[in-house]
Amino acid sequence: KKSNSQPEPIAASATPEAAPTPNNVVDWLRASVSRISRDHVPPGDIDVRAHLLDSGYVDSLSATELLAGIERQFGVRIQEVDIVGRLCTIEALAREIDVKATGAAR
Question: The pTM is what?
Answer without folding.
Answer: 0.75
